[in-house]
């Protein structure tokens, strides 16, 4: 687990920027990008972490981006991506599209990865000749929770595999240009299942009576969340998709670009959330450590029962593993809501953890939160968004200031 060894100056940064605080390591992001270099295109799914400085780093590393909203398109442009570059710097993926987003897509020449027949009809009628991908739901999926499974009959995402012929008919009707086929079936890796997904994409490619130039493997590459868990074998992952690409190339009779669209894999292990311990209280069942971060900051444990490693940084600068005895704790936040607990399973049952005894004033560090951490934060209980810091070695800089209550109130000045 790389995040435990990030070696970031956590205490100094909290002294400077306050708590709670997100801290990211650019080296870890760079290392993860390197692991996927075999793919022709690494298209970062920015929903995982869309801070514009992270996007700029991705651009420097040669990645391009996927955007799923007008806001994410604007972020991509602010980070310097060009939708008209080769390969396109931005692709817009969605199942629906509003007027404002259509205008943005047209103004910047952004290819659209279409997830429903209605959206294809809407785009075709308003922008005949536009460049499109089709996102296909192969009829099965995979997820670390039902909420992250994006394939199969229970998923709202993508064009159902049996409707591909209707999609092609719409593409012809409006003279849309088919750039590629896309399949993202969810998060988490199981190679046997992945082989099935690759097979499904090849099968669809063979019955698409229309030329195209790219395929996208989507995202979903998992990260090890507990010490000792195995990470993704990027070479194995590539090999399965590369074989699929060759089959599609043989069928089409020309070269096909192979894209991958990871979010979590590139940034999860690069991020920490640091919180301060404000109280410790005992009930007959649990010893609660109460910190100043809540599910308004990190919602994954409350939403999916996600596990994040937690470590203790004593206020006196000592090493917790040496200076403290180990106890059993539940970790919770400041929100006025019972579910504001970081140590819970997917049914909401509290799961106590063993770690060195924290004291009021210590810092707790939540690991592997660079993906779907800050990007899923909210202002619940009128709590401002926490600051974000990006480190290159021990050189760190603020990449988002802490939101203020005045920022929140100013939206309501009307
Ligand atoms: N491409 C598409 C079309 C997607 O819908 C997603 C994720 C990705 C790529 C990137 O998936 P990744 O490589 O990050 O697994 N909030 C949840 C994850 C939701 C993912 C939604 N779509 C979480 O915290 O686990």
UniProtKB/TrEMBL annotation:
Family matches, as InterPro entries: Ala_racemase/Decarboxylase_C, DAP_deCOOHase_LysA, De-COase2_N, De-COase2_pyr-phos_BS, Orn/DAP/Arg_de-COase, PLP-binding_barrel
GO terms, molecular function: diaminopimelate decarboxylase activity; pyridoxal phosphate binding
Binding residues for pyridoxal 5'-phosphate: 220, 261-264, 372
Modified residues (N6-(pyridoxal phosphate)lysine): 47
Pfam family, one: Orn_Arg_deC_N
A biological process from GO: lysine biosynthetic process via diaminopimelate
Domain Orn/DAP/Arg decarboxylase 2 N-terminal: 39-268
Domain of life: Bacteria
UniProt keyword annotations, A-Z: Amino-acid biosynthesis, Decarboxylase, Lyase, Lysine biosynthesis, Pyridoxal phosphate
Cofactors, names only: pyridoxal 5'-phosphate
Leading EC class: lyase
EC number(s) from the headed UniProt entry: 4.1.1.20
Catalytic reaction equation(s): meso-2,6-diaminopimelate + H(+) = L-lysine + CO2
Pathway(s) the chain acts in: Amino-acid biosynthesis; L-lysine biosynthesis via DAP pathway; L-lysine from DL-2,6-diaminopimelate: step 1/1
Annotated catalytic residues: 336 (proton donor)
Chain residues that bind substrate: 264, 300, 304, 337, 372
Record carries keyword Lyase: yes
Record-linked PANTHER family: DIAMINOPIMELATE DECARBOXYLASE, GROUP IV DECARBOXYLASE
Biological role stated in the UniProt entry: Specifically catalyzes the decarboxylation of meso-diaminopimelate (meso-DAP) to L-lysine.
Assembly: Homodimer.
Record-stated family: Belongs to the Orn/Lys/Arg decarboxylase class-II family. LysA subfamily.
The name this protein goes by in its record: Diaminopimelate decarboxylase
Organism whose genome encodes this protein: Ralstonia flatus
Name of encoding gene: lysA_1
């Amino acid at each position: 687990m790389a995040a435990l060894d990030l070696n970031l100056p956590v205490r100094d940064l909290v002294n400077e920027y306050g708590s709670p605080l997100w801290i990211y390591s650019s080296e870890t992001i760079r290392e993860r990008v390197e692991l996927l270099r075999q793919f022709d295109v690494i298209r970062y799914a920015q929903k995982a972490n869309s801070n514009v400085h992270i996007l700029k780093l991705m651009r420097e590393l040669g990645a391009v981006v996927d955007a799923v909203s007008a806001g994410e398109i604007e972020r991509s442009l602010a980070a310097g991506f060009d939708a008209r570059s080769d390969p396109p710097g931005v692709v817009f993926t969605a199942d629906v599209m509003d007027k404002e987003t259509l205008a943005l897509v047209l103004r910047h020449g952004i290819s659209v990865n279409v997830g429903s027949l209605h959206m294809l009809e809407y785009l075709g009628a308003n922008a005949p000749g536009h460049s499109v991908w089709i996102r296909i739901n192969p009829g099965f999926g995979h997820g670390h929770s039902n909420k992250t499974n994006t394939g199969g009959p229970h998923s709202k995402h993508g064009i159902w595999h049996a409707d591909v012929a209707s999609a092609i008919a719409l593409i012809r009707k409006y003279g849309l240009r088919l750039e590629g086929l896309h399949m993202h079936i969810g998060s988490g890796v199981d190679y046997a299942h992945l082989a099935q997904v690759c097979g499904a994409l090849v099968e669809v490619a063979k019955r698409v009576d229309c030329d195209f130039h790219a395929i996208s493997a989507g995202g979903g590459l998992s990260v090890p969340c507990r010490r000792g868990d195995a990470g993704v074998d990027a070479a194995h992952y590539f090999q399965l998709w590369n074989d699929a690409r060759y089959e599609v190339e043989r069928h089409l009779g020309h070269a096909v670009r192979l894209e991958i669209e990871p979010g979590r894999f590139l940034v999860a292990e690069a991020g920490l959330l640091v919180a301060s311990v404000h109280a410790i209280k005992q009930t007959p069942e649990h010893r609660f450590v109460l910190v100043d971060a809540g599910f308004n900051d990190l919602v994954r444990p409350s939403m999916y029962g996600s596990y994040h490693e937690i470590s203790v940084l004593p206020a006196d600068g000592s090493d917790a593993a040496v200076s403290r005895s180990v106890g059993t704790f539940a970790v919770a936040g400041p929100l006025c809501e019972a579910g504001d607990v970081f140590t819970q399973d997917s049914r909401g049952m509290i799961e106590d953890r063993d770690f060195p005894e924290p004291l009021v004033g210590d810092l707790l560090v939540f690991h592997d939160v660079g993906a779907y951490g800050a990007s899923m934060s909210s202002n619940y209980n009128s709590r401002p968004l926490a600051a974000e810091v990006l480190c290159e070695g021990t050189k760190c800089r603020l990449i988002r200031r802490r939101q203020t209550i005045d920022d929140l109130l100013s939206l309501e000045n009307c």
